[in-house]
Amino acid sequence: MANGLRFRESQISNHLNFAICRLPFEFASAATLGVNPSPGPRPLVKTPSRATLSPRGRAAAVGGERVATSGRDRAAVIAAKRAASIASLCLAFSFVWLVLSPAIRIQQAHAATTPVFSSDIAPILQKNCLACHSTAAKMGGFVMESYDLLMKGGKDGPAIVPGKSEQSRLIQMLEGKVQPRMPFGVDPLPASDIAVLKVWIDAGAKGPVAGEASRVLAPLAIPDIKPKVPVVSPIVSLRFSPDGSILAAGGYKQVRMIDRVSGKATRTLEGHADYVRSIVFSPDGKFLFAAGGPPQQWGEIKVWDVATGALIRTMRGHKDCIYSLAVSGWKAGRIRKL
Ligand code: HEC
Questions:
Q1: Domain boundary at 155, 186, 202, which?
Q2: 106 and 7 part of one domain
Q3: Do 282 and 255 have their domain in common?
Q4: Rounded-to-integer distance, Cα 53 and Cα 206, Å
Q5: Which of 98, 113, 128 is the last residue of a domain?
Q6: Residue 183 lies in domain
Q7: What average pLDDT does the segment 230-250 reach?
Q8: Strands (DSSP E) along 132-264, which ranges?
Q9: How many Å lie between the centroid of ligand 1 and the Cα of residue 319?
């Protein structure tokens, strides 16, 4: 939207420039034509009557004849010369304006909108490319875990030509102009993501500046350390079922269903990606929604059938874990279609 607006704005300004430019140009051509530099006696030619009516310079040149050397015509020639110099000044000025103003505008637009590597580019690559272009997978010999590696390219050399998105193989492959299309085997990137990458490349494909993370692309390497002795997970979330018969306790990668009367865990719902930080029952008590997910990676919600303990669905999204959950507009039976 913003780009569209800016684009239109600069189009308008180009039209204006064009209008400004045309005026002196007509003056200039008229004046240039009217000035006859050859000195010496000239044959007396009756100045065409149009000469006095229309701009002098142009009229004087009609038919390519030499103009009469009468005082009046000399004055016309001087006036034409003056007009010529004013016109060429105007022409020069509007030419400079014509050339500079879009450049200034583009610069201004870029200053405001040029995508930034760490906040705009890295997340797109991390989400869509890293699975296959990490040090571990290294498909096509291409690792994108850091800006330097990204610029280095893959087995066919650099895939990004700074300033030239159209010539960058990375873009050509995203657009399907070079096969295989990337990301490989899945849906193409949204046009808006490709557009962001293109603007960034066209603006010089600048790397992280001082203070910005330089290895933002590397996936978090979190070691899976197993405890040597069995540990009971701490409780990070709690919720009673609507009828008060079950207390659900969310812990690390699990939810324990505790019978309110006996105080014993009757069932453990396993398989959550990380701590279950929020639990909600459906208003009819039939389903349990458990939310969490690994911090800094994604959010996760698992939907469980309370009566059978069956997992109905796992939803993942966002770029961080979920801390709280609420159910609204509940309609029994809807859950199966989630
Ligand atoms: C599912 C795996 C997969 C994903 C995801 C993926 N790629 Fe690839 N990529 C490949 C494979 C495989 C190759 C090698 C293709 C070949 O050479 O035939 C490759 C090659 C490339 C190359 C060419 C490297 C070279 O030097 O030849 C580029 C550029 C590229 N990918 C960009 C991307 C971008 C950008 C994304 C994310 C938007 C992406 N890929 C996502 C699998 C993937």
A1: 202
A2: yes
A3: yes
A4: 60
A5: 113
A6: 117-202
A7: 95
A8: 237-240, 246-259
A9: 23
- List, for residues 178-201, the tens digit of each pLDDT value: 999 999 988 999 999 999 999 999
- Tell me if 214 is assigned to some domain: no
For the residues of 126-195, what is the DSSP string, one character each?
HHHTTTTSSTTT-GGG---SSHHHHHH-BTTB-S--TT-GGG-HHHHHHTTSSSSPSSTTSPPPPHHHHH
| 190/102: higher pLDDT | 190
Ligand 1 pocket, Cβ-based, cut-off 6 angstroms: 128-129, 131-133, 139-142, 153-156, 159, 169-170, 173-174, 180, 182-185, 189
Q: What is the DSSP letter of 302?
A: E
C-alpha to C-alpha distance for 195 and 183, rounded to whole angstroms? 15
| Number of compact structural domains in the chain | 3
Q: How far apart are CA 286 and CA 270, in angstroms?
A: 18
Instruction: Let me know whether 312 and 272 are in one domain.
Output: yes
Q: Is the pTM of this model over 0.70?
A: no
pLDDT tens-digit series, residues 127-170? 899 888 988 789 999 999 889 999 999 999 999 999 999 999 99
